[in-house]
Amino acid sequence: MTSYDYDLFVIGGGSGGVRGARVAASLGKKVAIAEEYRYGGTCVIRGCVPKKLFVYAAQFHEHFEDAAGFGWTLGESSFDWKKLIAAKDNEIARLEGLYKKGLAGANAEILETRAELVDAHTVRLVNTGKTVTAKTIVIATGGRPNPHAALPGNELCISSNEAFHLEELPRSIVIAGGGYIAVEFANIFHGLGVETTLIYRGAEILSRFDQDLRRGLHEAMSAKGIRILCHDALERVSKQDDRLAVETLNNGTLTADVVMLALGRVPNTQGLGLEAAGVKTDQRGAVVVDEYSRTSVPNIYALGDVTDRVQLTPVAIHEAMCFIETEYKNNPTKPDHETIATAVFSQPEIGTVGLTEEEAGKRYGELEVYRAQFRPLKATLSGRGEKMIMKLIVDASSRKVVGAHILGHDAGEMAQILGITLKAGCTKDDFDRTMAVHPTAAEELVTMYAPSYRIRDGVRV
């Protein structure tokens, strides 16, 4: 029998890699995990967590304004970017420590080095040049921002990575992209007082979301003062004195202090030694895996964003737990990528689970669409002109709720609960039998008794 240095070697210290390494080690396996930057990965270090902290910071100016409608008189307020960065850095360092503590507590060996494959069972530790062997290898190196190398002047731009570490808050920013990263940062920077322009080549922001929510968020962002330029793209970025000149396809030349590219993410596989190990990748560089996250090499698995399946932290963690069941518990388990609840932490938020109206119209012969748009109670005294949108998509024949979509405060929290109901296969009748919690915005989800309209064969009737 072949002897290996480790039962499991994990490359990548993000949420998926850490979960797989920690649980395998807790089962008594000899495990090592290598990370070249910081433990916690995209989500904890330069993604979801610091972004949500920035979202909270950006909301306070509206809270201060709203307070007047409820009888509060506030003094002059000011914002200190450096204090926010320092507080954020302290929290991220704390979380990174918890990730390492969990690994150490399970007796996994923590390596702070880049690791590259030499062959199907051998890994080279770049910092020392040492090679080690493992019976099983997991690739969990995540993704990285698309640098948009074809754009002249791309080296003058930042990505979401650098946005968390700007030395000064810019006076103005141009953000290229229309996905959730671009939209969230547009709201963050605007909320912190930055003149913000969002430029997107598509017809409407957030292309994979329900059309009603896309339009509703666009209108809300524009009303706040965020400039959104759709059907447009960056053609060149250049220095102009101490600012940047941004040449666009359809809107002339814009000027800004900072240009941010949020044009998608690509799998982080470059220089990883995949070819040497015989691991296949697709044209985007993503590791190709089967239903059990196994690569073209039987003893090598891949989890999370590096596979380019669903780029969400909870998905990577779920895939890691399925790997544990498959590899170490004699219980082959396929990750379930259906009906995943998700949120866009814009202002207002989007929370969504299941099919959009457009997707459902292609899949089902007849749909019932329940839609409510209303002013939330808080806005009645604050005087804010915001509107909430709630929408349920129902298969008319089975009465099963196949999509639920919310635009408004706490939409992400509501989407998590809705994710359970849709995963369980609840019908519209189940919603109708559920008592409302009053007064809440969420009660609209169980008080929409009559369809707003129907879709038959993809056509509204």
Task: Please give the structural blueprint.
Blueprint: E1 6-11, H1 15-26, E2 31-34, H2 41-46, H3 48-67, H4 81-105, E3 109-111, E4 115-119, E5 122-125, E6 130-139, E7 143-145, H5 160-163, E8 172-176, H6 180-191, E9 195-199, H7 211-224, E10 227-229, E11 234-240, E12 243-248, E13 253-256, E14 258-261, E15 265-267, H8 274-277, E16 300-302, H9 313-328, E17 342-344, E18 350-354, H10 357-363, E19 366-374, H11 377-382, E20 388-395, E21 401-407, H12 411-423, H13 428-433, E22 453-456, E23 459-460
Parallel strand pairs: 1-2, 1-6, 2-3, 6-16, 8-9, 8-14, 9-10
Antiparallel strand pairs: 4-5, 5-6, 7-15, 11-12, 12-13, 17-18, 18-21, 19-20, 19-22, 20-21, 22-23
Helix pairs in contact: 1-4, 1-9, 3-4, 3-6
Describe the global form.
globular
Low-confidence stretches: none
**Helix content class:** 25-40%
Sheet with most strands: 7 strands, mixed
Task: Give the overall pLDDT as a whole number.
Answer: 96
Q: What gap, in angstroms, lies between the N and C termini?
A: 68 Å
**DSSP summary, beta strand count:** 23
* Rg calc: 24 Å
Structural class estimated from helices and strands: alpha/beta
How many helical stretches? Answer: 13
What does this structure look like?
With 461 residues, the chain is an alpha/beta fold. The protein has helices at residues 15-26, 41-46, 48-67, 81-105, 160-163, 180-191, 211-224, 274-277, 313-328, 357-363, 377-382, 411-423, 428-433; strands at residues 6-11, 31-34, 109-111, 115-119, 122-125, 130-139, 143-145, 172-176, 195-199, 227-229, 234-240, 243-248, 253-256, 258-261, 265-267, 300-302, 342-344, 350-354, 366-374, 388-395, 401-407, 453-456, 459-460. Strands 1, 2, 3, 4, 5, 6 and 16 form a seven-stranded mixed sheet that branches. Strand 4 and strand 5 (122-125) form a beta hairpin. The chain is globular, with a radius of gyration of 24 Å.
